[in-house]
Amino acid sequence: MAVTKALTAGMEDYIETIANLAEKKKVVRVRDIAEEMNIKMPSVTEALKNLTKNGLVNHEKYEYVELTSEGSKLARKVRSQHNILFDFLTGVLNIDTQTAEKDACRMEHVVSPSTLKKLLSFVEFVRTCPIGEPDWLRNFEHYSQHGQRPEECSTKAGKQESEVKTMPNKSLRGLKPGQKGKIARVVGRGPTHRRILDMGVVPGTEIEVERVAPLGDPIEVKIRGYHLSLRKEEAGNVFVEVS
Amino acid sequence: MDKEITIALTGNPNSGKTTVFNNLTGARQHVGNYPGVTVEKKEGKLKYRDQDINVVDLPGTYSLTAYSIDEIVARDFVIEGKPDVVIDIVDASNLERNLYLATQFMELGVPLVIALNMSDVAKARGQQINKQRLSELLGVPLIPTVANRKKGMNELIDEAVKVAEGKGSLRKITVSYGKEVEEEILKIEQILEKDKALLEKYPARWLSVKLLENDNEVQKKIKKSPYAGEILAQVESSISHLKNIFGDDLELVIADRRYGFINGACHESVERTAEERLSTSDNIDKVITNRILGLPIFLALMWLVFKTTFKLSEAPMGWIEKTQEWLGATLGHLFAEGSALQSLVVDGIIGGVGSVLVFVPIIFLLFLAIAVLEDSGYMARAVFIMDRLMHKIGLHGRSFIPMILGFGCNVPAIMATRTIEDRRNRLVTILINPLMSCGARLPVYTLLAGAFFNERIAGNVIFSIYMLGIVLAVIVAKLFRKFLFPGPSAPFVMELPPYRMPTLKGLLIHMWERGVVYLKKAGTIIFAGCVLIWFLSNFPYNPKDSGYERLEKSYAGRIGRFIEPVMKPLGFDWKIGVGLVGGFIAKEIVVGTLGVLYQVGEADEESESLRAALQNDKYPDGRNVYNPLVAYALMVFVLIYVPCVACIAAIKRETNSWRWPLFSTFYLTALAWIMALIVYQGGRLLGLGG
Fold it and tell me: How many CB atoms lie within 10 A of CB B60?
């Protein structure tokens, strides 16, 4: 019964901060929370009282602050909402990480669960799209940067022009043996991404798919005069302008 | 010139670096480890015109990032070990990608010489390289070599010594990263200037580029600087400024510029005189990695390697055992019959040395076979073919070969995990390897299956044990990957090098190195283990005792009785316990120990008298000790429990710590106990065994 009424955005922020601090440190003090949220200590104490009343936090005066199981459940929920929004902002709208972080923080309190669910499946859909980034999304990027549609996607009214279509970029994993082209983009992060770059898989380079392994994965490509094999999962991060 | 010169050899994998190293140093090599890591350090000496030269063979790498331990080791050695000159072996037939590493050494500002190796292959492919032009464009002296025919070695050393002595004449050149990036590099460099101590060790430009690349290792170094705050603040603002211009991925921008620089240099110095056509290597691959033929060819090759190595090693293993017996008999006469000293020399010492040596033929032969697979280029194809399967259990294609070898002997199998780059994958592969039922366990299965199952199903019973091992290995691998070593899979971005004819010298050196490593590092542990078990099964010593009495009263016998309560739920009595203690030396010893305990004299797995003794053994209350269910539970236990001492020694050697051999001892024994319990108690519930 404790958590029937909706918490205010501020309260959710407190819960989130406590959960984050608890991960970083062994114990959480009022001072830590005040510092982290840039709020005066008395206000924190006041808020904690409120949260304790709602059964989300254990906090005796001058003692450490702990989330109750109810509280951690809420923290997890808020955080996963935060992550979905963050992924949408960075992954789909291409907003820089700092801004996205800030915006996600504010949006997470007001978005309804059903909208969130749709957003989540949307992000997943775009990410796992077998041909890589859908054309319209790439076109949208172009549109938001240059204020006009790229040629191959000029307005519906101008259909007749778009008959002369250039081949769109395809993910390397979707290419068949024997297909070749020029690398258009390489996305990703971390060691695998770096290894791919170091091996010479950078935009502008010619690449040709040679074959697929007998069990269906990895694939073998020819690039810069040598043979390279990579898993389809990794090849999904390389986009090729097929010639 | 008396001072010794240190040359560091570096280069991409498959560039012929090892061949150059072998040419330069011959047999005067020393293999060690870099401190704190399991990366191998190879060193060799040579004398050139009265000049003593020390050659260090750095791990083969494609780049110098902080993501791979090999790459960190290579660059740390070049920065901190301060070699007098670095020779970068470059595969001329694969110039662009090989020069990528060179650009990074250029950035490090170290004295550099490039060996343009395999220039014959490049020529045959119709590439005409203008060496002088390329050398000027890179600002690095360039020596053409053909390492597998020993061409150009003297010229290479000549040039290296010249550069080491500071007589290099070329203007140093660095890659330009474009106006925007260069501006930021300059800003960071200016702040770095304040920390003079830091700049004595590292070039400012290199540090700046690495900081922009978000290199963890370099960040750690900077954090120790008194100016850390200022430096990192500048780096942060530079990165966010550049991200605004180029988007999120600075690593891509930097890699792109390096390749751009290389493209430019190659464009001006390399001429193609012939159209590129399919090489022999490409044609071979059309068959060998073919979608339909690839897998059968791979399996056939594995079968061939397995069969021939184990067949060929049977004879020398027999000789070693014969020599051991002869030596034992001859030396045994020198001591009083039945004395403890005699037993120590014959069973303890000679037996222990024998246990070490008996592995030598198989290890040498297996590593010869692996060297052929590696050096010919087939290994990379095997990995390519098997990766899908291994990736399913969270491992890498490279884990497959050690698994196969494990069915012969886990010791060379564990030593063969060296080719797995990723530490977590390597550890998991090592830890599950003992579940591959090795040849030494077969005698135990044969004995028990022969005694308690009728001939028609005995073969299937043994087969089911092998299958159980594989199933457990898959499950354990998945669990370990999930809980013990969580994290994303290691990248599978692997070069498929052109097929090459291995050189005999290269193969022999390869084999020799592994063999010696085994003898030196694992040998001592195996020997110590054998002497320990000898002691446990002979003491307290009483010369009048028969073999049976001695074993029964010995510490091993006491251990057997002591652990009987734990073994009881599995259906085992104390004699089985003693046999299992003996199996720590090698699992086939379980058979011999049981032979002693049942007083049937020399017994092997086909011994009818031992089988009969087992069938007739009864508890005091008249129940049979053995029945098919107990026998099966025992086979399961022998399959899984403590790896043999040689295997433990190999794990210690390959992980460079006692932690993992201890861990595998405990987890395997616990797993063995649980599985045997499930079999025995489960079987009883189902009304089997009686």
Answer: 18
Domains identified in chain B, total number: 3
Q: Is the pLDDT of residue B158 over 50?
A: yes
Pair (B150, B184) in one structural domain: no
The last residue of a domain, from among B224, B239, B272? B272
ipTM > 0.90 for the complex: no
Are B228 and B137 found together in one domain? no
Q: Which domain holds residue B622?
A: 523-685
The angle at the Cα of B366, spanning B365 to B368, to the nearest 5 degrees, equals 65
Type and span of the H or E element at B261: helix B250-269
User: Among A70, A57, A87, A72, which residue's Cα sits nearest to residue A20?
Assistant: A72
Residues of chain B positioned with their CB less than 8 A from the CB of A215:
295, 385-389
Write out pLDDT tens, residues B237-294: 999 888 888 877 888 999 999 999 999 999 888 887 766 666 788 888 888 888 889 8
Q: What is the pLDDT of residues A73-109, one digit of tens each?
A: 888 888 777 888 888 887 777 777 778 888 887 787 7
All structural domains of chain A, each given as residue ranges with its CATH number in brackets, are 1-108 (1.10.10.10), 167-242 (2.30.30.90)
- List the single residue in A187, A197, A213 with the smallest CB-CB distance to B388: A213
> Chain A residues with CB inside 8 Å of B492's CB?
218, 229-231, 234
Chain CA centroid to CA B348, Å: 30
| Same domain for B643 and B602 | yes
Confirm if B655 and B38 have CB atoms less than 8 A apart: yes
Q: List the Cα angle B517/B518/B524 in 5-degree steps.
A: 105
Residues of A in contact with B292 (CB under 8 A): 214
